[in-house]
Structures are given as structure tokens and as C-alpha cells.
Amino acid sequence: MSLFNFSMSKPFHIPKQVIYICTGSKCKKHGGKELCKLFRDQAKAAGLKDTVEIIKTDCTDRCKFAPVLSIQPQNIWLHDVTEYQVPQLFRQYVQPPPNAAPNAVLPLNNPDKI
Prior knowledge:
Elements lengths: L16 E6 L2 H5 L2 H14 L6 E6 L11 E4 L3 E3 L7 H8 L21
Parallel strand pairs: 1-2
Antiparallel strand pairs: 1-3, 3-4
């Protein structure tokens, strides 16, 4: 008998992108928790709920830059993010342009300028 009963569980899904948002005390105080909801709403509205996963993390020890988030696998780190930036950041780093080829690697603007 197998230790795992896969027939009764959901399939193991690996997203194409993951957005890790710090929700440690300082980031949470500066809107980290709200950013999670806004990014989830963006993914759902764009029809990317199954390909983009939003994960709340504990403190990332970057409190001076709160709130902080990371977009993987591109290894993009953004800091001092506001809720008003979420739609632009989602379009720029997560949502592919309509004419992009599947799995295309898109050029990145300088994330430190945000």
C-alpha cells in the first residue's frame, strides 16, 4: 500500500511564476497583506490563477524597505511597493503581452527604479 493516496487528493500543481510577498510585522504594517490580495485579484482577472501563485512569507529581514516582494523564477525583488503600483507591476513582470510567444523570456525594466 502506498503512503500517498493520489486518487483522492488534488493533483500537484507547479505554477509558472510565484510572487512571494513579505508579511512580517513591518511589511504587514506597510501594506504587505493588502498587496497579497491585490496581486491575487490581478492574477484572477487576467485568467492566470492557475499559472501564477501568490505566497505570503514571514519576515525577509529587509524591514527598512517594507513592503518587499519577490517574483520568481525571474528573481525580481521589489521594495517600498504601494497598492497603486500593483496593476503596473503585474503587467510589467507577470502578465505576458498579448502577442508574446508561449514561454517567451521578456525583457525586464530596471526594478530598482520603481
